Amino acid sequence: MDRRTSIKWILAASAAWPLLGQRLALAGAPAAAAAGAGYGTDPNLLAPYHPGMYWPLTLSAPQRRLAASLADLIIPADEHSPSASSVGVVDFIDEWVSAPYPASQRDRPIVLGGFAWLDEQATHRFGTPFADAAAAQQTALCDEICDPRRAAADKREAAHFFAVYRDLTAGGFYSSPAGRKDLKYIGNVPLEHFPAPPAELLKKLGLA
Predict the structure, then answer these.
(1) Does residue 8 belong to any structural domain of this protein?
(2) Which residue in 68, 75, 185, 199 is deepest, having the highest Cβ count within 10 Å?
């Protein structure tokens, strides 16, 4: 799967989420809430940040391995840019599910429950945790849940997890320097001056 295809999947899956009308409960017992209290409304953006500074991080070493494997299935390395895990997407997701804010708290049980489901399914089918399964086995399992519209009835919650995780992976990757370069995004660049719109454009718009 190439990176452009993964973006199309994100858009298609996002359109299907409201139809699901449910939250994930794949892991049985609900995930414990994040323990942090947040950093307030005005963080110091110039101060150095260290992981775990504002709240305890959530993911265990095995969960981080799973997170990396799944992120790299969604956005693998190619001739344009590196893989999702190599630009810090796992750190981004760990921060996200650990933060004490409403959106993070909403997604936390979905992500943790989905991880548990993937490991359970991989162990049952392949005799190994998801991160240790062969690439073809990982892909086969994800193919069953990569599209909420096509997922079997008993896998719709897993498909919802996959859609959420794919969105987080894309958000983390495409907000990184490598991801912005891959998109050919030209913002966030300091300019010494602000040139006026080209005369050709103004003429085309009827403004000159």
Answers:
(1) yes
(2) 75
Q: With 0-12 CB in 10 A as exposed, 13-18 as middle and 19+ as buried, what is 190?
A: exposed
Burial environment of residue 1 by CB neighbours within 10 A (0 to 12, 13 to 18, 19 or more): middle
Rg (CA), the chain: 20
Handedness of CA 79, 83, 87, 89 (dihedral sign): positive
Instruction: Check residues 34 and 170 and name the one with the higher pLDDT.
Output: 170
User: Looking at the domain assignment, is residue 88 inside a domain?
Assistant: yes
Assigned token pair, 132: 């240790």
> Range of 132's domain?
3-25+53-188
- pTM score of the predicted model: 0.76
Does residue 40 sit within a domain? no
Flag whether 99 is in a domain: yes
Residue 189: what pLDDT?
Answer: 77
Identify the residue whose tokens are 């498909």. 159
* Number of domains forming the structure of the chain: 1
